[in-house]
Each structure stands twice: as C-alpha cells, then as structure tokens.
Design a protein that fits this description.
heterodimer, A: 571 residues, alpha+beta, Penicillin-binding protein 2a (Domain 2), Beta-lactamase, 2 domains, seven-stranded mixed sheet, five-stranded antiparallel sheet, B: 377 residues, mainly alpha, 12 helices
C-alpha cells in the first residue's frame, strides 16, 4: 500500500468514525431521549382555549332566581402573535377598562402561549376588540353573575372573583357545587397559535355548575330588608340586622344585615369598606343579648320544675319584689326602680312581661352552675350552630369551671354572656318549637340541570326541653306581647309571642355610656310557631329600649309575612 | 501513480464523450438525492410557504428549477474531460475570491439574519462561499499535481495554504463560521492527502487548532451559541431556541418517524426547516431508521468517490476526486453534527437536500466531474 493509499484510508476511517458518532448521538436523541423531548415540546404544539362552565344559579325556596348569569366574554392574547404590542395595548386598554401599561406588560409576558387579558368583559367591549382586528387577540364565552335583587341578601349570597371563584357567602360555601368544571378546546397549532391543517380539535365540554336552592324566602327577605333598613335609618343606629327562621326546621327564611351593598356594583376598589359591608354580622359577630336571653333561663326553669327539681320555681311562685340582689358582694339591680308597686308580686310569666332582672338571677342561682350550664349547652350556647356558612362565631360563655355565682347571676338575664344573633334565634326557636334543636341551614337543596331538586332534610341536633315546658313558655311569651314589654309587636288576631332585650355595650371592659343594643325575638302563632324573627338594632340614637326600637320592626316583618303569605287571622 | 501530470493537447472540444462507462450508481444516487431533497423541501416548507408567500409550493418550485439546472450541469460536467479543469485553476480561484469580496460591496451583498453571505443578481441570490469550496479543491488539486514532489515540504504547500487562508478570512468576515470550518478542514485534508510530510502537516495543524478559540473570542455571539449549545434550555427563547427545536423534531421522530409530511415542527417552530435544519424534519418524519438509511446512501456516495480517487493514476484526478468527495462528506457530517446538537448551531446546508440553488447546482455539477474522473481508466 502506498503512502497515498494509506492516507486515503485514514481519511475514510476518520469519516466513518464521525458518522458513527453521529449515528450514536441520533440514537440517543431520537430513541432514548425522544419521549422526554416530546413531552417538553407538547407545550408548544398544543393550545388550549378554556370553555368556561356556567355557574349554577342560586334560587330562593320557591324557585325564584336570586343569583343568575349574564353572557360575557373572556379576552385572551397570544403574545408572540401580537405584532405591534404598543399599538395593541393602547387600543385595548380603554375597551377593557384597564391601564395601558398593565395591558402592555401582559402582552410582553414571555414563556407563555396565552395570557388572559380580561374576564367577564361585556359584549360592547368585545365587539370593539373584534373590530380592531388585532392579530393574536381572541375571546371565548364567559359568564358574569347578575343578582336579581341587588343588595338584598348580599352578605349571605356573597360574591365571586372576576375569575368566577366564590369569594364569600353562599358563593364560597357552595363554590364546588356552583362552579362546575371548565371545559376546553384543545388543538394543535403553529408557532403563533394558528390552527394547523389536518389536526383534530379536541373539544372537552364544560360541565355547568348545579344550582343551589336556598331556604330563604325572597318575599319574606324583601319584607325584612325593608323593615331593617327603615329602623336603621329612622333610629340613627350604627347597624341593624334580622333573622327569620322556620322554628320547625331551623331553615333560615330571611337574613338581613344593614348597611349593605349592591352585589351588582361591588366596591372592589375599597377592600375595607367591602370587608365591613359584606360581613354577615348576625352569624359572624357576637353581642351581649340582654333580656332576650331570659327566654333560655325561663325554659330551663320550667323544664326543671316539670322534672320535679325542687330548686326550680313553679309557675305560680311569687318572686321576691326587691329591686336588688347581692351576690358575692356585688349588687345586681333591676333596670326598673321597682317604685310605686312596679315589679311586685311577680310570677315567672309576669317576670317575663316586666323583664325583671332579679327574678332571673334567682333562677340561675337556684338551678346552680351544673344544671344551668347543662341547659346552656343544650341550647347551643358557646358553640357554633353548624349553619352552612363560613366564619360563624362561637359566642362567649364563661367556662363552667371558672364561673362564679356573680357571673351565673348575670348570665341568668343575659349579661356576661355573648352570642351571635343566629345562636340566640336558634336557642329560642328550640325552646318554643317543642324542644327540638336543629342545625340551621341556608341551603335547602341542590338543583340539577334538569330542574329537579335534591332536598337536604333538617338535621336534629338535640332536644332541649319537653313539649309541655315549651308550650308553657310559649304561653308566657305570648303574654309578654299581649300585655307586657313586647306589646309593640302585637298584631290583632295573630297570637304573636316574644321577648324584648336591651343591652348596654361594653368598650374596653367598661360600660359604654349611651350605647345600647336593642333587640326583640318573637314568633307566631304562639300555639304552633311557624315564623320566628330576631331583630337586633345596634346603637340606636334616642329611644333605645328593645320594646320601643326593635319590637315594632318584628311586627312590621310579621305583618309583611302575613300579607305575602295570605295568612288568615285566628278566631 | 505517475509523478508528473500529462500536458493536455490544445484545441480539443470542450465536451467529449467519456471513453468508458463511469460510475453510474454515483450519478443515480446524486439524482435520487436531489429528487428526495425536493420532496423534503416541499414537506418542510409547504406550511411556511403558504403563510409567508401564500403558496405552498413556493420553495419547492425554486428547488425543482435548481434540480433541473443541477441535472443539466451534472450531465454537462460528466462530458467535460476533467483534466481540462486544471486550466481553470487560477481563473476560478480568482473569481471565487472576487465574489467573496463582492459580498461586502453595499448594494450587491445581501444581508440575512445578521450575516452578509449572498450576492444578489436581480431576483437570484448566490452564495460565493459555495463556489469558493470547489475553487479551492480545484486549485489545490492542480497545484499539487503540478508540483507533486514538492508537496512534502512546507514551501510546496504554501500557495494552497495561502489561498485557503484568504478564503477563510473572507468567509469568516461574512460571518460564516461553519463554512470557514469546512474550508479549513478541506485544506487540512487535501494537504494531508497530497502526501505531505507528517511533520509539515503537524506544523500547519497548530495554528488551525489555535484559531478556533480565537475566532470564538472575537465574536461574542459565538460564545453565546456555545453556551446555548451546552445547555439550550438555559435560554430557550434566545440562543438555545434553534437547537431545542431541532431536538424536539428529532425526538418526535423516534425510531420510525411520524410519517412523511407529518412533521409538527415544520409549523414554524423550527427555524430554517427547509434549509439548514432540513435534517431535523427528515429525522422527525422518517425517524432514526430513516436517517440511518439516508446516511447509508451518503456513505455509499462517499465510498464511491474515494474509490474513484483511489483508482486514479494521475495525482490531479486523485486529488480532485478526493476533494469533491470530501466537500460533500464534510458538509453532510458538519450539518448532522449541528442538527443533532454535537456542535454549536451554524448555518450550513445539507448538500443535495437543503433548499438553496447555489449549493444544489454546484454539488450536482461536482458529482458530474467525479463521474468523468471515474470514466477514465
């Protein structure tokens, strides 16, 4: 072999060697690494346009739509398909109601195939965007909430984010039911997102959310809304709230907190205002109930009397007429001066009529801590009711192991104890409905797409007192309205019963002068309660007695119910 | 082999039927490659053509024209007694140098993707570096044939080196790193094949090896490409993009490919899918097996070319045949190394396949020359 032939052979060997390397490398890339590379690449090959599931509607108990949907649009951009980004931002920003810089920033986002420019955009804006004809901007159907009654029930219903996620209230609690499952349109695209030929479009249908049927009766709700608003404005109160329960199932028929806000015009730009206005205070905040709490004390005494507990007072027992009681060295006074024969010769019924504090001190002390606390527990105090609403407060009850007689004496007439409005309404409802304590509810059932309702049945939590004790209590409370402090709630022919309450407010551990919470808890008909209402007016100006401020509101609500439900008078 | 080249008789016809039948399989392979190239160019470019020019056949039409011209050029070259080409040694070398220089004349040079590599003649653009490679082969072959004995010394190889350096300098200034590399490799290979002393060869190897890091240091973008090559996902949107897209295409191909015309990466994800990165599309559509088959044909052609050189009794034919074969082989190898991510991405077409008429016509013509050499016994 000549030198040249050897050299030629070396070159051939070198070339062969290089091709061997290439083949090995290609084997590695294509055969071994291939699967992982395809997984990485599929991100850029496939585009997904979301198909937004329609949010389920919210109905009242009679099937009236309270929270509906309107058609809106979501606007997306494929940044690398948008040519003149500055121009696009300048044209889109006013249509989307956004800052031009913010839009431009989204259009410059790298590392993503799509950015969402706006959700829940109105038809006019989208038509404007289409007419601009900017490449790389597209849209898909979306839905926006439309609340049929504006600010009615706003704290209970709650609201959604612009992405359609329930942020508060029923919208949040039942978000999983309401939201449904978003679908998508999946397709292969070229580098700027244009559909490529001959590829399949995979359409994954959106599953619309189910509806929620509330226990709320929108007619009663509107009556209560109006009454609460009126008392809040006329009394100059800080706020006012109300709950209407069906005492036989603890279904919430109406729940009002005023001031409120318009669900169709949510003050999202003022988070503090929104936070305060959207608070369902009657469930989430506590207050010192005052005399309305005497219903619980009276109920405990009646049951113990029927049980044969000799410490309990019989319905005919005449309480000591003194204005004061001395407990643990502290003096407890009645709100009344007991002068000129007032609050004398009181039986339990009269004590309730007069709302005489010392009598209830006597009961609490007579029953003793153990017995009395057993009843407090049965009536759900110091514990959540378990309503289907987020953020329910526990209330405040001095722990049984730490309670002193002077505490017990005050708890008897509703001081040194704090409850939520819902807790008190439920406690009273169970005391007057024959002694059944249910879990209160806001949702009555889930509404399927075919319109059928899967109803949730009331859950009995425990029993509190016997039917007999309950009936006796109802009779006494009817007397309170007929001839006692609750007469402002009296409605001719409708057997309204109830109890007033006026509590002083505390600030920093001391009594706040001139600040009261006026309340009234009432129900009708007294012999077979169907509607129970608790009205709470916080810091009314001028007149502050529950009998003056809150009782008429309950009467107004009951009158409204009688009117919308066409309830005939008895007798 | 004879130490002296035969002096050609004057006044001979330019075209002359070869006395013997040459290496027909080589021509068949070349034509087949060109035809296959048209299919691949169509597959890789139909979508881009439709989007950019509203014509799915935009690139393939050009390629078919180039293929037809290439076929004519190949046949014509097959009929030109190759020894006559020795006379073109100086004119062609000079022409290539002038064309390379013209690239830098404003108004004539065409700049694309930040590099001035083309000269425009109306609607036609040609890439002088494609011509320069062959001009260099011809010059080196003719020079060493004429000065056969002297090739052993450094002085004897000096003129070849000088031309090589001039070409390299002009091409690197465009800039075009990969063709510079090809010319450099070609220079080394031809000097090696000329039978030079290994010592001389070693002496000229040193500056070539040194040149690589120097050239990289001179242009920062080369360093960026180098780092992107080491980890393309560190800059997936910028420097690493091209390589990532090539790897996606190859990976998607797997063993057997996704089928002809079914590439996903051609939907504008892969830049230069119809030209420098057409092998990625081949790998995606035809798979690892397809690429191996393709390389088998390439190696077959290289083997035929080397065999032709080996059979040559004359140093000119020997070096010309080897040079033409090496130009082809080096380009295929460098292109495959780039596409598979073994070396940093550079702009180099895959001969006979990639879209681009200068390369296609000249490569086919060079195969005609190779045939003519093979026909001589």
């Amino acid at each position: 072999m000549t030198v040249l032939q050897k050299r030629l052979l070396s070159v051939v060997l070198a070339i062969t060697f290089i091709f061997f390397i290439i083949a090995a490398r290609l084997f590695y890339v294509q055969v071994i690494w291939g699967r992982e590379l395809v997984m990485r690449a599929s991100d850029q090959w496939n585009r997904e346009i979301p198909v937004v599931a329609a949010r389920g509607l919210i109905y009242d108990r009679n099937g009236t739509v309270i929270a509906g949907n309107t058609q809106s649009y979501a606007v997306f951009a494929r940044p690398n398909a948008v040519g003149d980004k500055a121009y696009a931002a300048a044209m889109l920003a006013p249509l989307l109601g956004q800052d031009e810089g913010a839009v431009l920033k989204k259009l410059h986002k790298s590392g993503v195939s799509e950015v969402t420019l706006a959700r829940q955009t109105g038809r006019a804006a989208v038509e404007g965007i289409i007419s601009l004809g900017i490449d790389g901007i597209y849209y898909s159907p979306d839905t926006s909430r439309a609340y049929a009654y504006g600010d009615a029930l706003c704290q209970v219903l709650g609201f959604t984010s612009s992405d359609g996620l329930g942020l508060s209230g029923i919208e949040k609690v039942y978000n999983d039911v309401l939201s449904g499952i978003d679908g998508s349109i999946l397709y292969s695209s070229d580098i700027v997102g244009n559909l490529t030929d001959g590829t399949d479009i995979v359409y994954r249908e959106a599953v619309d959310g189910d509806g929620i049927m509330l226990t709320i009766d929108i007619d009663i709700q509107l009556v209560a809304e109006q009454a609460v608003r009126r008392v809040c404005l006329s009394s100059g109160a800080e706020s006012a709230s109300c709950i209407v329960l069906d005492p036989n199932s603890f279904e919430v028929l109406a729940m009002v907190n005023y001031p409120s806000y318009d669900l169709n015009d949510i003050p999202r730009d003022e988070p503090e205002v929104l936070n305060s206005l959207s608070r369902n205070t009657i469930v989430c905040d506590i207050y010192e109930p005052g005399s309305t709490f005497k219903v619980v004390t009276a109920a405990a005494n009646l049951q113990e009397y029927l049980n044969g507990n000799t410490a309990a007072f019989s319905p005919t027992y005449i309480f000591n007429g003194s204005r004061t009681r001395s407990v643990d060295g502290t003096t407890i006074r009645c709100w009344s001066d007991h002068a000129n024969g007032k609050h004398s010769s009181q039986t339990l019924a009269l004590a309730l009529n007069n709302s005489c504090n010392p009598c209830f001190t006597d009961i609490a002390l007579a029953l003793g801590t153990n017995v009395f606390y057993d009843y407090l527990t049965l009536f759900g105090l110091g514990n959540v009711t378990g309503i289907d609403f987020a953020g329910e407060a526990l209330g405040m009850l001095v722990p049984q192991s730490l309670v002193r007689d002077c505490d017990l004496a005050r708890i008897g007439f509703g001081q040194t104890v704090a409850v939520t409005g819902l807790q008190l309404a439920c406690a009273v409802a169970s005391a007057v409905n024959g002694g059944n304590y249910y879990v209160p509810s806001l949702a009555r059932g889930v509404v399927s797409k075919d319109g059928s309702v899967e109803e949730l049945s009331p859950v009995l939590k425990n029993t509190t007192i016997s039917e007999r004790a309950s009936a006796m209590l109802c009779e006494m409370l009817e007397g309170v309205v007929a001839e006692g402090s609750g007469k402002n709630a009296y409605i001719e022919g409708y057997r309204v019963a109830g109890k007033t309450g006026t509590a002083q407010k505390y600030e920093n551990g001391a009594v706040a002068q001139g600040k009261y919470v006026s309340s009234f808890v009432g129900f009708f008909p007294a012999n077979e309660p169907r509607y129970l209402a608790l009205v709470i007016v916080d810091e009314p100006q001028g007149a502050y007695y529950g009998s003056v401020v809150a009782a008429p509101v309950a009467a107004e609500i009951f009158n409204g119910i009688i009117s919308v439900k066409n309830i005939p008078p008895v007798e | 082999m004879s130490p002296s080249s035969k002096v050609l008789p004057k006044r001979q016809a330019l075209f002359e039927k070869p006395k013997n039948i040459g290496d027909v399989p080589l021509l068949v392979c070349t034509a087949g490659m060109a035809a296959f190239g048209c299919v691949m160019v169509y597959s890789a470019s139909s979508y881009v053509g439709e989007v950019l020019y509203d014509d799915a056949f935009f690139f393939v039409t050009k390629q078919l024209v180039g293929g037809a011209i290439g076929l004519l050029a190949m046949v014509a070259a097959a009929f030109v007694p190759y020894k006559k080409l020795a006379a073109l040694k100086y004119p062609l070398a000079a022409l290539a140098a002038v064309l390379l220089a013209l690239v830098f004349v404003p108004g004539i040079g065409v700049t694309n993707y930040g590099a001035t590599r083309w000269i425009g003649l109306g609607s036609l653009t040609i890439q002088p570096s494609e011509i320069a490679k062959y001009a260099f082969v011809l010059f080196a072959a003719a020079h060493f044939a004429k000065n056969y004995g002297r090739a052993r010394s450094f002085k004897g190889v000096a003129p070849v080196l000088a031309l090589g350096v001039v070409y390299c300098a002009l091409i690197i200034a465009e800039p075009n790193m990969s063709i510079t590399m090809c010319v450099g490799l070609l220079m080394l290979a031809l000097v090696f094949l000329s039978g030079t002393n290994l010592k001389t060869f070693a002496v000229m190897l040193v500056p070539c090896v040194v040149a690589v890091p120097v050239l990289i240091a001179l242009e920062p973008y080369r360093l960026e490409r180098l780092s992107a090559f080491i980890d393309p996902w560190a800059s997936p949107r910028d420097e690493g993009y091209q390589l990532i897209q090539s790897l996606y295409a190859l990976g998607n191909g797997g063993w057997l490919g996704v089928g002809l015309f079914n590439s996903t990466q051609k939907y504008r994800f892969l830049p230069f899918a119809e030209s420098d990165f057409i092998m990625s599309v081949m790998g995606e559509e035809l798979g690892f097996i397809g690429l191996i088959a393709f390389f088998a044909v390439c190696l077959f052609m290289i083997w035929r070319g080397i065999a032709i050189a080996r059979r040559c009794t004359q140093p000119f034919g020997y070096l010309l045949a080897a040079g033409i074969t090496l130009v082809y082989g080096i380009q295929v190898a460098v292109n495959a190394l780039v596409v598979s991510g073994c070396i940093p991405p550079t702009g180099l077409p895959l001969p006979l396949i990639s879209s681009g008429n200068t390369s296609l016509v000249i490569t086919m013509a060079s195969m005609g020359v190779l045939y003519n050499i093979s026909a001589e016994r």
